[in-house]
Prior knowledge:
Number of helices: 36
Radius of gyration: 42 Å
Structural class: alpha/beta
Strand content: 5-15%
Largest sheet: 10 strands, mixed
Distance between the termini: 72 Å
Helix content: 55-70%
Amino acid sequence: MPTNFTVVPVxxxxxxxxxxxxxxxxxxxxxxxxxxxxxxxxGVPKENSPFINNTDNDKGNSYDGTNMALFEEEMDSNPxxxxxxxxxxNYTNLTQGAQEHEEADDDxxxxxxxxxxxxxxxxxxxxxxxxxxxxxxxxxxxxxxxVGTAGILESLAIVCLCCSCxxxxxxxxxxxxxxxxxxxxxxxxxxxxxxxxxxxxxVGLCFYLGTTFAGSMYILGTIEILLTYIVPKAAIFVAExxxxxxxxxxxxxxxxxxxxxxxMSVVVFVGVKYVNKLALVFLACVILSxxxxxxxxxxxxxxxxxxxxxxxxxxxxxxxxxxxCLKTVVIDNVTVTTKLWKLFCDGPELNATCNDYFVQNxxxxxxxxxxxxxxxxxxxxxxxxxxxxxxxxxxxxxxxxVGIYFPSVTGIMAGSNRSGDLRDAQKSIPIGTxxxxxxxxxxxxxxxxxxxxxxxxxxxxxxFGDAVKGNLVIGTLSWPSPWVIVIGSFFSCCGAGxxxxxxxxxxxxxxxxxxxxxxxxxxxxxxxxxxxxxCLVFGHGKANGEPTWALLLTAGICEIGILIASLDAVxxxxxMFFLMCYLFVNLACAVQTLLRTPNWRPRFKYYHxxxxxxxxxxxxxxxxxxxxxxxxxxMAIATCIYKYIEYRGAEKxxxxxxxxxxxxxxxxxxxxxxxAPPHTKNWRxxxxxxLNVDSDQGVKHPRLLSxxxxxxxxxxxxxxxxxxxxxxxxxxxxxxxxxxSAMSAERTKGFCHVVVSSNLRDGVSHLIxxxxxxxxxxxTVLMAWPGNWRQSNDQQSWKNFIETVRETTATHHALLVAxxxxxxxxxxxRLVEGTIDVWWVVHDGGMLMLLPFLLRQHxxxxxxxxxxxxVAQMDDNSIQMKKDLQVFLYHxxxxxxxxxxxxxxxxxxxxTYEKTLVMEQxxxxxxxxxxxxxxxxxxIQSITDESRSSIRRKNQGAAQRLSLVIKVFxxxxxxxxxxxxxxxxxxxxxxxxxxxxxxxxxxxxxxxxHLVLLNMPGPPRNRGGDENYMEFLEVLLEGLNRVxxxxxxxxxxxxxxx
Length: 1058
């Protein structure tokens, strides 16, 4: 169905556009400043994003039209469709790797070159780079040895196992790479945006280490080719004895490898563009070497090359110090010994003492490459390391061969790393990567079969070509000359090493720019100073943003691999890191597929979560097959990095799959979690903390959050509740700020719930009723004691407190009230000695027993002892009570000292009467003397009206009011005198008596305790005695420093049963 578009012409302000372009060019000169100031939420420097929420660049654009005036107020947040489509059409996302540094090197004028749109296709952009990175050093230096050692069938098993792993990973990677645009960072970007910053940082650093050790492996391969096959006489260390040859070779590798690493680092530092331009040359060397191998195999069918191998019995001899494979020769009818005789015997004489194996076996000469039609069968036997035999320098077994071979199939991420240079990345990455893996898999499988069918087994097992006079074994098979393979493999290893030293620092730079790993963030001023010094030393004066620090760190880590010096020992190390990266790529695809998130819409459709899970399992199995101890070390490194990022740096929200998995798991758990109260054995305080904030939205009592953490001991639910008076439309910004400040204080882990209400009382009620979700609701309310309620002119503060107590009782929530909360210890303090005293007056479900136990689980209270006091009346048996309480605590598995305090029924003291009288006088006077706000307003209005009528009437009204005040005062005085007589029969005296006596006993026993837990009496049913209730509590707590009033929720929270 055709679609018609109507183009509406608009005015084009060319001058403004030109001026804006000039400003853009000027701003482009300061790249680092742009990164610091214009950072997106995920830590990546701002791109010219075409999406609707990026309006910073459009703030200067005004809308002057009249056709869309109805929407003109929303243009700042919701742009026009024409503007959106224009951004989409002009959107470019080039890699922030070698290309931008190359452009900076070529930038000689005041303006940068115009950025060209990406034009690379599937073949040049993905297929060939993957081919170059996959085919390399292992193919040329170790594949023949693996075939000769393991045999054709086991070698095919190794190849199929490793290639299946990379193919499954490529399928998962294709699905992730086609699910949107993949900027710079390649595999790190895909994993971090799919699994979150913790996994992304951990796997990104592991992938960086793998790439760095890959550079070590390629450099070692370069030096091995140089010293073994090209210029053997260049060796610095020469072994005098055969058994010392391995050590001499390793020392030569260390010296030459360090020099090669330094040279390559200088090349990468000075000019990355030269590395990129030579990439095609290196790739041509690889392809030419592959064709030379196949051409040599075809030639062996008709004319096998002449590479004789000298055998003594069934052992291969090193063809270095003899020219003929004979023990003796006949010259002029005289039998003469050869140079080979001298290697095994004491002298050239025929009667000299010789090696037993040399005497017992004959010397034979076989063709090292009999040809494809020869039907070669390989064998193996034990050998003597002190004789001139061709021997393995390491003990081989199947799992070791897998670890050595696996680096030959890595490099599948090369295409995704270049996604910004591709014309159509979502089409090119899957096709190019899968075709490259299929091609290289075909090459490896055919090479295994052809090597086993063309080359004699004894020659295949000759790792360094000693049996064929030091020639590269695979080179003996090539056509037209062995030097084609030698030179091609040399340049291939050089190019791969340069590529590793180029890519690894930029991967580390991408991780550092995201800001998720704090120790990678170095201040720009320090970097700039050191960078200028390094530039002066190396003669490279352009500050082009090259990752110098990352390059130096990469070279340092790469030197560790060089010092290992053995290619066979370095290969399993980098295999671990690459396998871990591939494992998490498969995990990311499986998680996204199973979650079915709305944004998971990859264009590559040939994937399935089962394939991703199979690939993940295969990667994990290969890690332990290659080397179980290296696998444990690699996983430990990744775990440490993960926990470090989680603790210090992970503050990004990228919509990753782990967060989606957590949401699904939380939803599933909430549905399964019944809203009914949990069993007594599972009960723990799920706290709703009622906080007060100041005018700047800062928490007034942060120690309340510390007490919350100590009560939970790191477990349970915490909801920090806060109420702001007003309307949400006017105080939404303050509400968001209050949420942030509440959770940042004391680093409390939990949730924040801020309610904006017309008054404080209703807001607290809403919090108590609605906080939480489903079965994850609070069961305990924690609040601070209103310490200045007496001095406050506003009675609403203590009235709100009492109403909160009543409401928690009605909702069956436990209540904890902390007095002098600012004196409570912080989470960093450690109480060395002291006690936690529990005054168990009435049974509240066991809250008083459970809370001290939970506090002592925290490191702040761990060294405090627990003491339990209970009150006995006159008719109670205090001795039996103590025994019963000790038995009860024993069954509860609680360690505590027990003491029974006897309270005698003494007469009510005069002090109690005095306190009661003062309390009631204060209450009554306030009720009768204090005018309400409405009455005061009426009084002011009446005075104003009367002053307007006449001064005389005003004076008369004032006299009447004065007489009224006098009458009220005398009536109040008479009523208080009457209270003096009647107060003996009222309950206030008895309550005050209880408060005074309890306070005396508690202060006497627990004044030096670190914390006192006490039953909190309930408020009176009659609201007329609310102020007296506050007085009772004040008297009860007088003289105590840290007090936690506890009021149970009406259910048992502790049990003696298992």
